[in-house]
Amino acid sequence: MTYEGKVLAALADPTRRAIFEKLAKGRSSVADVARSLPVSQPAISQHLKVLKEAGLVSDEPLGQRRIYSIDPAGLGPLRQWLDRFWEDQLAAFKVLADSDEASGAGPRKPER
Amino acid sequence: MHRIEPAPVVKSVTVGAPPERAFEIFTARMGDWWLKTHSLTASGQKTVVVERADGGRWYEIGTSGEVKEWGRVLAYDPPKRILFAWQLNADWTFDPDFETEVEVTFEPTAEGGTTVRLEHRDLANYGAKAEVARASLDSEGGWAGLLGAFAAKAA
Question: Please, are residues B99 and B124 in contact by the beta-carbon 8 Å criterion?
Fold first, then answer.
């Protein structure tokens, strides 16, 4: 199966989409996911395996559990680019905001 | 159909200036801090204009005077928050039918400074564009575009 085919197949199942969306809101254990969906833990583990094989989620051990999250490397070049873009812009903003403050320019009245 | 949203890009920075001043610098003086390397102008960026009102324009001006639209101000709420519509698509072209949101909030810190938090969201809208879907499919691991392709096929 092609990479695209794997991803589409992984997301074609409504339960897997629901799991994926839950992880998009924050990293979770299998038990966390099971609490929010009417699906058994073994079934969720199976769905997570499919999502992982499609490169959509990644997991890491935490004690005896595994914590699942959306794979940031899989979010696409555009999102990664935007992440870096805003990081650089805010850093540039900070340079000016801090230098203005250091030069003694007082705060102006808030506008209404 | 049920839609899958890529996680928004969230960034924050803390500055020494109080919220009123930080907000002022961020909006009225965007052209003074914006990295000039990120410009759509042919002649080079002269400044950036954020019109200070709900529904205001957001654009840059080149050194030759040409104007490049970036988007709009959806909500202007000094000194707490400004919400932009970022209307540059993945080809860096202004598209009035394309919209993602950039929300910037200004929270006072205990030390008298400001934590500026920026969230760029609705990124799934990029995936809705066919050309982006193709570009992302070409790169291993890109799923924003794949979701667009999925949406098209599942519709």
Answer: no
Q: Which residues contact residue B149 at a Cβ distance below 8 angstroms, ignoring those fewer than 6 apart?
A: A4, A8, B133, B137
| Contact list, A105 vs chain B (CB under 8 Å) | 21
Nearest CA in chain A to B126: A78
Distances in Å between the Cα of B15 and the Cα atoms of B12, B28, B106, B116 are: 10, 17, 10, 8
pLDDT in tens, A2-26: 444 566 677 778 888 888 878 877 7
Please give the class, per CATH, of domain A3-70: mainly alpha
Q: Rounded to an integer, what distance in angstroms lies between the CA atom of residue B149 and that of residue A16?
A: 17
Whether complex ipTM tops 0.95: no
Which chain A residue shows the shortest CA-CA distance from B25?
Answer: A97
pLDDT bin (cut points 50, 70, 90) of residue B87 is: very high
Residue pair B8/B119 in contact (Cβ under 8 Å)? The answer is: yes
Of residues B7, B11, B90, nearest to A87 (C-beta): B11
To the nearest whole Å, the CA of A105 is away from the closest chain B CA by 9
The whole-angstrom distance between A63's CA and the closest CA on chain B is 26
Instruction: Copy the structure tokens of residue B123.
Output: 């990124």
Q: Verify whether the Cβ–Cβ distance B143 to A93 is below 8 Å.
A: no
Q: Indicate yes or no: CB of A74 within 8 angstroms of CB of B6.
A: no
Within 8 A of B33 by CB-CB distance, chain A residues are 89, 92-93, 95-97
> Mind listing the domains of chain B with CATH numbers?
10-122 (3.30.530.20), 124-155 (no CATH)
